[in-house]
Amino acid sequence: LGIGGMPVAATREQPNRAGILIIDVSSGSVAQKSGIIVGDILFEFDGHPIKALTELQAAVAACTANSPVAIKLYRGTNVMAVTAQF
Questions:
Q1: 15 pLDDT more than 80
Q2: Whose CA is closest to 47, among 36, 35, 33, 62?
Q3: N or C, fewer C-beta in 10 Å, the chain?
Q4: What is the average pLDDT across 52-62?
Q5: Rounded to two decimals, what is the model's pTM?
C-alpha cells in the first residue's frame, strides 16, 4: 500500500474513529495514487474493519494483481471512500 501508520483507538468523544492513523505516504505508492494523505485514519479495507497494522498488512497481501479495492477512511470529521488499484 505504501503507508506508514500507527493504530488509534476510539475515544468517548469519537467512538467510531478506531483504525490506522496514516503518518507517512510513500511517493508513487498505491496509497498516494488513491488519494490517501498523512492524517487520514484508515478504518476499512475491502469491506473489512481494520484496527491493527497486522490486519492491514494481511489484507493487502491477499489482494490480487490489478484488482480494485475499496478503502474507507476518516479525513478530519468526514468519512471518505477511495479505491486502491493493486
A1: no
A2: 62
A3: C
A4: 93
A5: 0.90
